[in-house]
Amino acid sequence: MRSAEAMRRLGGILANGLPAPDGPPLVIALDGELGSGKTTLTGGFLAALGIEGPYRSPTYTLIEPYEAAGRRVSHLDLYRVAAPHEVAELGLRDLLEPGAVLIVEWASRAQDVLAARDLHLQLGYGPGPESRTVEATARSPAGATLLLAIGSSVDAELVHLSR
Questions:
Q1: Backbone phi, psi, residue 40, to 5°
Q2: Are 13 and 145 in contact (CB under 8 A)?
Q3: Chain segment 48-85, per-residue pLDDT in tens
Q4: Phi, psi at residue 116, to the nearest 5°?
Q5: Which residue has the higher pLDDT, 109 or 2?
Q6: Could you state, in order of their start, the residue ranges of all structural domains in the chain?
Q7: Nearest Cα to Cα of residue 41 among 18, 70, 69, 75
Q8: What is the C-alpha separation between 154 and 158, in angstroms, rounded?
Q9: Which CATH superfamily is domain 3-162 in?
Q10: How far apart are CA 128 and CA 97, in angstroms?
Q11: How far apart are CA 50 and CA 60, in angstroms?
């Protein structure tokens, strides 16, 4: 499978595996080199929730809010953030309302400011020019539920799961 298709499919799997919208907020952290598929994965996630594209990374605006399926989804891109205190100034804690979902590209730049990460996906390049890899790590019960959804739905060659 081509990498872009695989990333969109993985995003759809995550969206379809979301807990009920009346539960606690959920943070999906995405890290990886430029071009590894973070925005493409997010586009698949948003499409599965019924949000129409085009899907762009909010590199300059930093946060792109959406409403879908009874919940607020915030797509964040922290690529241009130089220090963790800049993340704190974005007011991310205000976005963590019940049922909210935060998808955070370049999440490692937030360090401990965004400590409530439920699922961390480390995207990378695979052996072929079009292939990608994903290492998925659950950091909460909600993240573990998403990890199970991923594990039962994707190719083992694409995703490595850890708890």
A1: -65, -45
A2: no
A3: 999 998 888 888 788 999 998 789 999 999 998 888 77
A4: -80, 65
A5: 109
A6: 3-162
A7: 75
A8: 7
A9: P-loop containing nucleotide triphosphate hydrolases (3.40.50.300)
A10: 41
A11: 24
